[in-house]
Amino acid sequence: MESSKNLLEEKGSPSGSPRLLQGIVQYPHPTLRHRSKPVRKVDEAFRQMVGEMLELMYKRDGVGLAANQVDLPYRVFVMNPTGDPGQKEQEFVLINPEILSRKGGMEEKEEGCLSLPGIYAPVRRATKILLVAYNLQGEEVRYEWEGLAGRAAQHEIDHLDGVLFIDRLSPAALAEVRERLLELEQEFQTNRRLGLIPDDRHIAARLASLEALRT
Ligand code: ZN
Fold this sequence. Notes:
The structure is a single chain. By secondary structure, the protein is of the alpha+beta class. The chain has one domain (30-214): Peptide Deformylase. Helices cover 32% and strands 22% of the residues. It has four helices and five strands; from the N terminus they run αβββββααα. Strand 4 (121-134) and strand 5 form a beta hairpin. The protein is globular and about 45 Å long.
Protein backbone atom coordinates (compact mmCIF):
# COMPACT_ATOMS: atom_id res chain seq x y z
CA MET A 1 0.00 0.00 0.00
CA GLU A 2 1.13 3.53 -0.69
CA SER A 3 1.46 5.96 2.18
CA SER A 4 -0.30 9.30 1.99
CA LYS A 5 2.86 11.34 1.61
CA ASN A 6 4.66 11.10 -1.70
CA LEU A 7 8.34 11.68 -1.14
CA LEU A 8 10.01 9.88 -4.00
CA GLU A 9 13.54 9.58 -2.77
CA GLU A 10 16.12 8.09 -5.06
CA LYS A 11 18.58 5.59 -3.70
CA GLY A 12 21.66 4.16 -5.34
CA SER A 13 21.54 0.50 -6.32
CA PRO A 14 22.84 -1.69 -3.51
CA SER A 15 26.13 -3.48 -4.02
CA GLY A 16 26.31 -7.26 -3.82
CA SER A 17 24.44 -9.99 -5.72
CA PRO A 18 22.74 -9.23 -9.03
CA ARG A 19 19.16 -8.08 -8.56
CA LEU A 20 16.47 -10.75 -8.75
CA LEU A 21 13.46 -8.44 -9.08
CA GLN A 22 12.74 -6.21 -12.08
CA GLY A 23 10.51 -3.75 -10.26
CA ILE A 24 6.88 -3.16 -9.39
CA VAL A 25 4.29 -4.20 -11.98
CA GLN A 26 1.32 -1.94 -12.64
CA TYR A 27 -2.37 -2.48 -13.26
CA PRO A 28 -3.56 -4.31 -15.36
CA HIS A 29 -0.56 -6.68 -15.29
CA PRO A 30 -1.95 -10.27 -15.09
CA THR A 31 0.25 -11.26 -12.12
CA LEU A 32 -1.79 -8.84 -9.99
CA ARG A 33 -4.75 -11.20 -10.59
CA HIS A 34 -2.78 -14.36 -9.79
CA ARG A 35 -3.77 -16.13 -6.57
CA SER A 36 -0.46 -16.67 -4.77
CA LYS A 37 0.61 -20.10 -3.53
CA PRO A 38 1.78 -20.87 0.04
CA VAL A 39 5.58 -20.96 0.31
CA ARG A 40 7.01 -24.35 1.33
CA LYS A 41 10.72 -23.62 1.00
CA VAL A 42 12.63 -20.54 2.17
CA ASP A 43 16.09 -20.50 0.58
CA GLU A 44 18.77 -17.86 0.10
CA ALA A 45 17.29 -16.60 -3.20
CA PHE A 46 13.89 -16.22 -1.50
CA ARG A 47 15.47 -14.20 1.33
CA GLN A 48 17.19 -11.99 -1.25
CA MET A 49 13.89 -11.43 -3.09
CA VAL A 50 12.22 -10.41 0.17
CA GLY A 51 15.10 -8.00 0.86
CA GLU A 52 14.64 -6.45 -2.58
CA MET A 53 10.87 -6.14 -1.95
CA LEU A 54 11.66 -4.10 1.18
CA GLU A 55 14.09 -1.89 -0.76
CA LEU A 56 11.50 -1.27 -3.51
CA MET A 57 8.82 -0.50 -0.93
CA TYR A 58 10.98 2.09 0.84
CA LYS A 59 12.27 3.57 -2.41
CA ARG A 60 8.70 4.15 -3.64
CA ASP A 61 7.62 5.49 -0.24
CA GLY A 62 5.21 2.62 0.34
CA VAL A 63 4.11 1.05 3.61
CA GLY A 64 3.42 -2.43 2.19
CA LEU A 65 4.28 -4.54 -0.86
CA ALA A 66 2.95 -7.97 -1.89
CA ALA A 67 4.80 -10.58 -3.96
CA ASN A 68 2.34 -10.28 -6.90
CA GLN A 69 3.40 -6.66 -7.23
CA VAL A 70 6.94 -7.72 -8.07
CA ASP A 71 5.73 -10.45 -10.45
CA LEU A 72 6.16 -13.36 -8.01
CA PRO A 73 3.58 -16.10 -7.28
CA TYR A 74 4.44 -16.53 -3.58
CA ARG A 75 2.19 -15.90 -0.58
CA VAL A 76 4.38 -13.27 1.13
CA PHE A 77 4.23 -9.56 1.77
CA VAL A 78 6.43 -6.96 3.45
CA MET A 79 5.17 -4.06 5.51
CA ASN A 80 6.36 -1.13 7.57
CA PRO A 81 3.46 1.14 8.62
CA THR A 82 5.90 3.98 9.39
CA GLY A 83 7.45 3.80 5.89
CA ASP A 84 10.75 4.56 7.64
CA PRO A 85 13.58 2.07 6.92
CA GLY A 86 15.22 3.25 10.15
CA GLN A 87 12.37 1.81 12.23
CA LYS A 88 13.27 -1.87 11.92
CA GLU A 89 10.98 -2.89 14.80
CA GLN A 90 8.06 -1.79 12.60
CA GLU A 91 9.28 -3.84 9.63
CA PHE A 92 7.49 -7.13 8.95
CA VAL A 93 7.96 -9.99 6.51
CA LEU A 94 4.82 -12.14 6.58
CA ILE A 95 4.90 -15.53 4.90
CA ASN A 96 1.67 -17.48 4.26
CA PRO A 97 -0.43 -14.92 6.16
CA GLU A 98 -4.05 -15.65 7.05
CA ILE A 99 -6.57 -13.42 8.79
CA LEU A 100 -8.00 -15.36 11.75
CA SER A 101 -10.62 -12.79 12.73
CA ARG A 102 -11.92 -9.32 12.01
CA LYS A 103 -13.14 -7.13 14.86
CA GLY A 104 -14.41 -3.71 15.79
CA GLY A 105 -16.72 -3.15 12.84
CA MET A 106 -15.72 -1.44 9.62
CA GLU A 107 -14.17 1.90 8.80
CA GLU A 108 -13.57 3.76 5.57
CA LYS A 109 -10.23 5.43 4.75
CA GLU A 110 -8.42 6.54 1.62
CA GLU A 111 -5.94 4.08 0.10
CA GLY A 112 -3.41 4.13 -2.69
CA CYS A 113 -1.35 1.35 -4.27
CA LEU A 114 2.13 1.26 -5.81
CA SER A 115 0.65 -0.81 -8.68
CA LEU A 116 -2.06 1.80 -9.34
CA PRO A 117 -0.09 5.07 -9.40
CA GLY A 118 -2.14 8.24 -9.19
CA ILE A 119 -5.29 6.51 -7.85
CA TYR A 120 -6.58 7.24 -4.34
CA ALA A 121 -10.02 6.29 -3.09
CA PRO A 122 -11.86 5.40 0.12
CA VAL A 123 -12.03 1.68 1.01
CA ARG A 124 -14.12 0.01 3.73
CA ARG A 125 -12.09 -2.43 5.84
CA ALA A 126 -12.33 -4.15 9.21
CA THR A 127 -11.13 -1.86 12.00
CA LYS A 128 -9.02 -4.56 13.63
CA ILE A 129 -7.63 -7.92 12.50
CA LEU A 130 -5.95 -10.91 14.09
CA LEU A 131 -3.40 -12.37 11.70
CA VAL A 132 -1.21 -15.49 11.72
CA ALA A 133 1.84 -15.97 9.49
CA TYR A 134 5.43 -17.23 9.46
CA ASN A 135 8.48 -15.00 9.60
CA LEU A 136 11.74 -15.51 7.67
CA GLN A 137 13.09 -17.64 10.52
CA GLY A 138 10.20 -20.09 10.04
CA GLU A 139 8.54 -19.14 13.35
CA GLU A 140 4.77 -18.76 13.59
CA VAL A 141 3.83 -15.17 14.46
CA ARG A 142 0.46 -13.67 15.45
CA TYR A 143 -0.41 -10.00 15.40
CA GLU A 144 -3.47 -8.01 16.32
CA TRP A 145 -3.40 -4.83 14.27
CA GLU A 146 -5.61 -1.80 13.85
CA GLY A 147 -5.05 1.63 12.30
CA LEU A 148 -2.69 1.83 9.34
CA ALA A 149 -1.03 -1.55 10.10
CA GLY A 150 -4.41 -3.33 10.09
CA ARG A 151 -5.48 -1.57 6.89
CA ALA A 152 -2.18 -2.16 5.08
CA ALA A 153 -2.15 -5.87 6.05
CA GLN A 154 -5.70 -6.32 4.69
CA HIS A 155 -4.72 -4.48 1.48
CA GLU A 156 -1.62 -6.73 1.02
CA ILE A 157 -3.47 -9.99 1.78
CA ASP A 158 -6.04 -8.96 -0.85
CA HIS A 159 -3.13 -8.66 -3.33
CA LEU A 160 -2.05 -12.23 -2.49
CA ASP A 161 -5.60 -13.37 -3.33
CA GLY A 162 -5.50 -11.47 -6.65
CA VAL A 163 -7.76 -8.69 -5.34
CA LEU A 164 -7.05 -4.96 -5.86
CA PHE A 165 -8.41 -2.11 -3.77
CA ILE A 166 -10.33 -0.80 -6.79
CA ASP A 167 -12.42 -4.01 -6.55
CA ARG A 168 -13.71 -2.79 -3.18
CA LEU A 169 -14.78 0.72 -4.19
CA SER A 170 -18.35 1.99 -4.15
CA PRO A 171 -19.78 2.56 -7.65
CA ALA A 172 -19.43 6.32 -7.09
CA ALA A 173 -15.77 6.07 -6.00
CA LEU A 174 -15.00 3.76 -8.94
CA ALA A 175 -16.55 6.24 -11.35
CA GLU A 176 -14.21 8.92 -9.95
CA VAL A 177 -11.09 6.91 -10.83
CA ARG A 178 -12.29 5.31 -14.09
CA GLU A 179 -10.47 7.76 -16.35
CA ARG A 180 -7.12 7.13 -14.65
CA LEU A 181 -7.72 3.35 -14.84
CA LEU A 182 -8.25 3.64 -18.59
CA GLU A 183 -4.99 5.59 -18.86
CA LEU A 184 -3.14 2.81 -17.03
CA GLU A 185 -4.76 0.20 -19.31
CA GLN A 186 -3.63 2.12 -22.40
CA GLU A 187 -0.11 2.51 -21.00
CA PHE A 188 0.03 -1.25 -20.36
CA GLN A 189 -1.08 -2.06 -23.94
CA THR A 190 1.52 0.36 -25.32
CA ASN A 191 4.28 -1.23 -23.23
CA ARG A 192 3.17 -4.64 -24.46
CA ARG A 193 3.29 -3.57 -28.10
CA LEU A 194 6.81 -2.26 -27.44
CA GLY A 195 7.77 -5.70 -26.15
CA LEU A 196 8.40 -4.44 -22.61
CA ILE A 197 5.80 -6.82 -21.13
CA PRO A 198 5.57 -10.50 -22.18
CA ASP A 199 2.28 -12.01 -23.38
CA ASP A 200 -0.09 -13.76 -20.94
CA ARG A 201 1.16 -17.25 -21.87
CA HIS A 202 4.79 -16.38 -21.06
CA ILE A 203 3.82 -14.72 -17.79
CA ALA A 204 1.79 -17.79 -16.74
CA ALA A 205 4.64 -20.17 -17.67
CA ARG A 206 7.16 -18.13 -15.65
CA LEU A 207 4.89 -18.06 -12.58
CA ALA A 208 4.34 -21.83 -12.86
CA SER A 209 8.10 -22.49 -12.92
CA LEU A 210 8.66 -20.24 -9.89
CA GLU A 211 5.85 -22.05 -8.06
CA ALA A 212 7.46 -25.41 -8.82
CA LEU A 213 10.63 -24.20 -7.04
CA ARG A 214 9.17 -23.19 -3.68
CA THR A 215 5.45 -24.00 -3.33
ZN1 ZN B 1 -1.39 -2.35 -3.33
